[in-house]
Amino acid sequence: MPPAPLIPIYAPARPWAPPRxxxxxxxxxxxxxxATNIRANGIDVFKCRVDTDFGRGFYTTTxxxxxxxxxxxxxxDPAVARIRPNQSVVLTFVLDRFQLAALLSIQFVxxxxxxxxxxSLVQHCRQSTxxxxxxxxxxxxxxxxxxxxxxxxxxxxxxxxxxxxxxxADQFSFHTFGGVRLLQQQIDRKEKKFFDIEYLS
Length: 201
What we know:
By secondary structure, the protein is an alpha+beta fold. It has one domain (23-199). The protein is 25% helix and 21% strand. The protein is built from five helices and nine strands. The protein has a four-stranded mixed sheet. The longest helix is centred in the middle third of the chain and has 13 residues, at 64-76. The termini are far apart. The model has no long low-confidence stretch (mean pLDDT 93).
């Protein structure tokens, strides 16, 4: 029996080989004031918003365009809009996939309306307040008495009350010192191939 003919790939991706197979590129949108503070003092999850999809944490994405939108949203936020000089920026972290895989994590693939596990966690975290922060893991307690996964990743909620997720968007959020440490290590290396800042105009 003759071999089946090869079907050409419509849009061939770059080969799955190093560095692509070894590293993942994550983006974070913020402002230049935020970036300066991060470089000087490190990432502090205790300063992050509490009412987000996966709760209090430092959020990144594999989608550069999405990070740019986050950066502009942060720039025009009334809480920071009066800060001058300031500028929208995108931080780029290049992380080792093996180190990322070693984190205690929770992962979601789909965000359709029927995906109750995903929406249950999102609704749980989104209803957090500064006085009552809803974490997402147990039973191991962290020093602050909360229970978090190091890393949570999955779709992005556009309208969480209606169970509507954004198309072509994702998020990787870091919630513990162990998770944030991977990002901090890349900053501390002071090499653009592992950490870079893009200033938006």
